[in-house]
Write a structure and sequence with these properties.
Two copies of one chain form a homodimer. With 202 residues, chain A is an all-alpha fold. Chain A folds into two domains: 1-46, Arc Repressor Mutant, subunit A, CATH 1.10.10.60; 48-194, Tetracycline Repressor, domain 2, CATH 1.10.357.10. The first copy, chain A, has helices at residues 3-21, 28-35, 39-45, 49-73, 79-96, 104-111, 117-140, 151-172, 175-194. In chain A, helix 1 packs across helix 4 (49-73) and helix 8 packs antiparallel against helix 9 (175-194). The first copy, chain A, is elongated. At the A-B interface, helix 6, helix 7, helix 8 and helix 9 of A face helix 6, helix 7, helix 8 and helix 9 of B. The structure holds a DNA duplex (30 and 30 nucleotides).
Chain lengths: 202, 202
Amino acid sequence: MNAADTRQRILMTAMELFWEKGYLSTSVADILSRSQVHSGSLYHFFPGKQDVLVGVLELYRDGIDAMLLAPNWDGVDDPIDKVFALLAGYRTHLIVTDCTYGCPIGSLALEIHEPDPVVRELMAANFSNWSAAIAGCFEAAADRLPKDTDRKALGEFVLTVMEGAVMQARTYRDIGYFDRNIAVLRDYITILLATEKSANFA
Amino acid sequence: MNAADTRQRILMTAMELFWEKGYLSTSVADILSRSQVHSGSLYHFFPGKQDVLVGVLELYRDGIDAMLLAPNWDGVDDPIDKVFALLAGYRTHLIVTDCTYGCPIGSLALEIHEPDPVVRELMAANFSNWSAAIAGCFEAAADRLPKDTDRKALGEFVLTVMEGAVMQARTYRDIGYFDRNIAVLRDYITILLATEKSANFA
DNA sequence: TGCTTGGTTGAATGTTCAATCAACTCATCT
DNA sequence: AGATGAGTTGATTGAACATTCAACCAAGCA
C-alpha cells in the first residue's frame, strides 16, 4: 500500500465514522481500527484529530458535484424538479438508515460548539456550495418565478428546510416529519410558480 | 443548603453548560466546579451524567410556557404576530451571543447520535411542545388562512425554519442568514393570509 | 554497498473522564 | 440520649483518550 492509499483510507474511514457517530464520539482509535492503519501512520499524515476532520470537510466540499448532485440529478432536467430530487435523496438516506442518520455537515455544525476557524469556515463553505447549487436551479427557472424573487435566499431556505426536516425525522424516528415539511415547502414553491411574473410580495 | 437546592443548582448549572458547550463536551467535573457541588452529592441525586441530561430536558419540557413563550408573547395578542415574536426571541439570543449559541434542543438532537430512548423521547417531546404552540397560533388564526391549511404541519415547518436558520447563522456567524430565512417564511405566510379562504393548494 | 527519505509499527505517556465509596454531618424521631 | 437516614465530602479508581517516539522497513540513488 502506498502513501496515497493510506491517507485516503484514513479519510474515507473518518468520513464514515463521523457520519455514523459524530466527530466527538469518534475516537482516533476507532479510525485506526476500522481503517487498519497504525497510529504512527495517521500522525504521519495528520498533525491531529482535528486535521482529519479538516480533510473530511475538504472531501465533502470538493465532492459535492460528483458525490451528491450528479447521482441525484441523473436524468432530471427541469431545475425545479432538481430541487426536489435532491431532497428525495435525503429522504432515501433516512429510509435506508431507519431515520437514524442525518446531514453530516449539519450534525457537525451543531455538535462542535466552539469550532476552530478553519473548521467553521469549511462547514460554511459546504453550506454555501449546497445552497448555491439550489439557487442555481431557481436561477435557471427565474422566468417562471416572480421576477423579484431572491433566488439566493430561496436556496438558503431550501437548505434550512432540509436540515430542519432531517433533524425532526431523526429525532422522532419518523419519516412523516420529513415528508410534511417538504410538502409545505413544495406548496410554497408551487405558489411562487403559479404567481404572475409581475406580482410583487416584497 | 437543603436537598432541593443542591439538585436544583446541579440542573441549572448543567442547563447552562449543555447550552454553552454541548452535552458531550461538558464533563461532570465542569458541572461540579461551576455549581460548587461535590461529586458524591451529584451522584446521590443522579445515577449518572445522562440522568442529569434527562433532568435538564424535563426542565425545558415543563418550562416552555414560563421560560420561553410567556416572555416572548408578553403584550402580543395577534396569533400570527406571536409566531414571529417567538422567532424574534431567537434572533435576540443570536445577537447577544454574537451568533455563537443555538437552540439547546436542536443542538442536543444532532449531537447525540445514538440517544437512549428516554433522552430521544424527551427531545421529541420538546419539539412537539414547541411546534404545537405555533400550531395553536395558526389554529387561532384559522379563519384567516386557506381553509384546507394543515395547521399542525405548518407548526412543524416553523420549527424547521427556526432550527435551520439558527444553524446557518451560527455556522456563518452572521445574523443575515437568520434574517433572510425568516423573511422567506414571512413571505410564505403572508401569501397564505392573502389567499382567498376558499383557495385550495393541496 | 551504504545513505537518504518517506512511510510504518505499536508500546508507552500523561491526561481527562465518569463513577465509586468509606467516612462523615446533622436534623429528626423514638 | 440514642438511633436513623438523608445528604455531603473528596480522594480514589480504572477506563478511554489523543498523542508521541524510538525503532524499523523498503525503495531509489550515489
